[in-house]
Every structure is written in structure tokens, then in C-alpha cells.
Amino acid sequence: MTASAQKNIRNFSIVAHIDHGKSTLADRLIQITGGLTEREMTDQVLDSMDIERERGITIKAQTVRLSYTAKDGETYTLNLIDTPGHVDFAYEVNRSLAAVEGSLLVVDASQGVEAQTLANVYQAIDNNHEIVPVLNKIDLPAAEPEKVKAQIEDVIGLDASNAIGISAKTGLNVDQVLEAIVTRLPPPMGDREAPLKALLVDSWYDTYLGVVVLVRIIDGVLKKGQRIKMLGSGAAYDVDRVGVFTPKMVAMAELGPGEIGFLTGSIKEVADTRVGDTITEEKRPCVEMLAGFKPAQPVVFCGLFPVDAADFEDLRAAMGKLRLNDASFSFEMETSAALGFGFRCGFLGLLHLEIIQERLEREFNLDLIATAPSVIYQIEMTDDSTIDLHNPADMPDVVKIKEIREPWIRATILTPDEYLGSVLKLCQDRRGNQIELTYVGARAMVTYDLPLNEVVFDFYDRLKSISKGYASFDYQITEYRPGDLVKMSILVNAEPVDALSMLVHRTRAEARGRVMCEKLKDLIPQHLFQIPIQAAIGAKIIARETIRALRKDVTAKCYGGDITRKRKLLEKQKEGKKKMRQFGKVEIPQEAFIAALKMDE
């Protein structure tokens, strides 16, 4: 590829809030440039997973190379990366942005700027991107393009005077977007003669090809048959094939500076290809590594157990396979008295947890049960050592603990004015501290510091329900702060149920314990003996409910006759119940666990 061809490359990604039309715009760009024939086109071409299509969200960032002949007669190569909009997949966005020079900022002309729009556009600005604002859905009756342009200027501080108004669904003005990409975004820099230096953007496992690695070439040339070395892990591989996605895989002889494509080699595990690593030639390595990007840190942990204990090995194999395609998902084995063998898994957020659980159930036919989600606590012991606590059941003895620190987040919530009161109340109830409150047109933008363990439970669902779905929410983890946290155990018939134990703030413990006991009382079926359900902190019982015994009428067969005969039968029954209560096992059905873990205050 010559230098003249290099100046005709444009690398860009599409950033936007969930549902503002990124994937639909990507469809139109692919269609207009002829990346796929009409027959091959489907809606949301780049959302290849079933779950992505059903939920209408993008989970994995996807890339495609398009060829476009501009009005000036030149032919340009456009590399597009379609990114997710959801806060749980922010690291996918982060690494997609590191691989390109410009971004299309898509804003829904009827909804305006949302929390995730801000988060993603700030990441693009941090990566020194040239940004082209695009107003989508201008054909809707509710669209207010002028108002939204003013909002982009006020909130983000971008000049929106030349924002392009389009409808990605109908294809209106999409050709103007292509012209803007060519004229307003910069070509990539890079030296063809320098040693090979490439950024590893993503990797996934393909059953036929082994590990497929998505790369962005910075300097040098990547050819078939070359021997490459990963600077981070130090491993070396022979390149079998090099190519690009047009969304279909197309083999190429080589990739030059500024190009985005894939390579396959004899790589066995995705774990060997660390996202953000630098790829170079083994014989002629480059001097310094690329900055890469921060690895994904799991924030939410929960236990996943098979409903049928015999499925444990299948679950282990399934998790290993998912791990191949999703490096941000981590797991280790754990056992629980109530649930048997399972895994403690780390996720980037609740949506990530839900998606992984759904993929395990759907792609591998497993029946799973998940314990209550918890976050990582830092515990400082009296001997000044610090441990990370992932599972409340493993909490050390209270006597040895000096203090417990919990993660706090900085949350940005955008909400229409009429729901502001309920949103503020929700944040206060969750022990939040208000940092600032500003107005963006008719919408309030609230910044709050909140403890993460109050957010992972059901904060997002509550926020959506009190604002009728209009509030948007984005967060990042800021720091660990000491908190007055206690471990609350649930006892059923005086036996602790480890799967239901949780760390809660002392002020919230009693309310939460009571809710849990009431819930279990309705969920556990009656037995032939009385069952107490208790919530306890240490040895102190803070809430109790009792499930009444099922009674069999033992005196039914005596009509008339002597009272002592009846009394004898009743006494005998009483003795039996007493004995049963000592040795009786309480069967807690799986549904009860699942329902009890879905805490709704």
C-alpha cells in the first residue's frame, strides 16, 4: 500500500447512548458502500449474537471495512467500529476508540443528550478524536434538531453548527455522513518502513481457525508467514492468514500502517492474546510498547451453581468456552452447603451478569441458579494485612477485623424535571451524597457519590421505573471508603443458609433482614413441623418469621369414646413433631432461592 493510499484511509467508530441508532446507521453505511449485497443485508448486520438481536443492544464491538468513492473522485477505505452503548461494556468502547482517529457522535433528535452519550464522547475526546456530530431520527414527529444542537454545545462543548441531520432507518442524508467522514476526519499517521507495531484490539475463538485477533497496524507491515511476537506476554507465533472484514472475512496479502484487520496463527487460547498488547516482528521488534488500555476490572461477583449437581462438569466446560470469547469474565470454583459445587464469577455489572447467565443457559443448555450479587470489599485485619472479600460467606472473624472498606462510585443521572424528586429520594435512600445538580434545557443532571453495593442490587431497575424509563445513568468507580458494614446471615430452622448471606450497612440491616424473612416465609412450603426463619448479625437475631406446621388430624378415626384415647394420640403426635424438628431437613426449593435473591424493597 502506497503513501497516497494511506492518506485515503479513514478509521472511525460510532459512539452513542443505548438505542440512539448506532447499529442501524452502520447498516446503512454498509449498504450504501456495497459492503454486502441487498440479499445478504439483515437488520443490525454487526450484532451477530442472538441475545444482541433479541435485546436490541450491542455487546461486542464489531468492525467492518468499506470502500467509498467520494465526490472528488478518489476512492477511500473506511474502517468502521460499531461500539456498545451500555455502561457495563464501557471497556469495549474504550479499546475500540484507541484503535481509530475519529468518531461519529450519534444523538437521537427526539431524546437529546443522555448519560451514556456523555461518557462515551468524553472517552473519544480523551483519545484526541475528531468528532462529527450526527442527529438521528429527524423524521420522527417528536424530533427537535435545533434544541438538541444547542444541548450538544451546552453539555458537551462541541460545535454542533454543522451537525448532520439524518434518518438511519430510511437512509435520509446518510451520504452526507460518508462525505463528512472523508472530509472532516484525519487520515492515520504511520511509517511503512519502521518495524511492525500493531495494537491488539480484540480477540475471539473460532472453531475452525483457532483464535482470531483483531489488530490495528500503527507502523510497518503485517504479512502472511511472518513470525510475530506479543510484547506483553512474550509469546511468538507464525501468521497463517491476514485479512479484513467487509463484514465477511476476506483474506489479504498484507496490512499496512493505519489499516484495521485480523490475523490468525497457531494460537490456542484467547487468554494468550491480551487485549491492548503490542504485536511486533520477532526478528525486528519495535522499541517501546503502545500504551494499551486498562484491563477490565470485575466489579460485581456472584456464585453460579447448576440446578442439577450432575451438570457441574458441563458448566465448567461451558465457562471455559465463554472465557475464550470474553476476557473480562473471570471465575473460580467454590462450594456451598445449600447449593453444592459451583463457581464464583466476576462481572463488569449486572447486565453483563445477566447476559453471561443467559448465554450459558442458552448456548450450553444449562439450568443455573445465581446467588445474590456482591461487590469486592477490602478488609483491613488487626495485623495490618488487607484482604479482598468476594463472597460474604468467607468473611473472617469480626474480632480480627480492623475496618471494612467498600467501593464507591460517581454516578451521573440525567432525568426529566418532573421525576427529579423521586430520583433524589432514591439516591438518598441508597446512602448517596449529592455532589451537584445542573440543568440541561428541561432536564436535570445530577451527580451523586453512591456505594456500589447499593447500586448492584436493583438500582437501575428502580431508577427506570420511577422515571418511566426516561432517566439515564452512567457511573465509574472512584475509591474505597470505610463503612459500617455487617454480615447478615439467614437461618432456616437454626441452620445458616450460606447462599443467602450478605454484607449490608448496619442502618439497612434490619429492614433488609425483615424483607428477606417475609419473602422466604411465602416461598418455603409448609413441613410437618414448625420452621423458624431468622435474620441474624453475629449472635443477635434482628428479624424472625415462622412457618406453621402442617397438621394431620390424628383424632379423625375416634368418634365418641374416651377423651384419654384422643389425648394419647395428640401427645404422640406432639412428640413426633418435636423429634422431627430436631432431625427434620427443611427442603428449600430452587425457585425460593431465585425469588429470594431478587430483592425488591
From TrEMBL:
Major enzyme class: hydrolase
- All copies of the Tr-type G domain together span 7-189
Where found, per UniProt? Cell membrane
Sequence intervals crossing the membrane: none
User: Pfam families given for it?
Assistant: EFG_C, GTP_EFTU, GTP_EFTU_D2, LepA_C
Protein keywords: Cell membrane, GTP-binding, Hydrolase, Membrane, Nucleotide-binding, Protein biosynthesis
Q: Does the entry feature the keyword Hydrolase, yes or no?
A: yes
Q: Which InterPro entries match?
A: EF-4 (IPR006297), EFG_III/V (IPR035647), EFG_V-like (IPR000640), EFTu-like_2 (IPR004161), G_TR_CS (IPR031157), LepA_C_sf (IPR038363), LepA_CTD (IPR013842), LepA_IV (IPR035654)
Task: Tell me the membrane topology, using the record's own terms.
Answer: Peripheral membrane protein
Question: PANTHER family this protein is in?
Answer: TRANSLATION FACTOR GUF1 HOMOLOG, CHLOROPLASTIC, TRANSLATION FACTOR GUF1-RELATED
Q: Which HAMAP family match?
A: LepA (MF_00071)
Query: What job does this protein perform?
Result: Required for accurate and efficient protein synthesis under certain stress conditions. May act as a fidelity factor of the translation reaction, by catalyzing a one-codon backward translocation of tRNAs on improperly translocated ribosomes. Back-translocation proceeds from a post-translocation (POST) complex to a pre-translocation (PRE) complex, thus giving elongation factor G a second chance to translocate the tRNAs correctly. Binds to ribosomes in a GTP-dependent manner.
What family, per the record?
Belongs to the TRAFAC class translation factor GTPase superfamily. Classic translation factor GTPase family. LepA subfamily.
What is this protein called in UniProt?
Elongation factor 4
Question: What is the gene name?
Answer: lepA
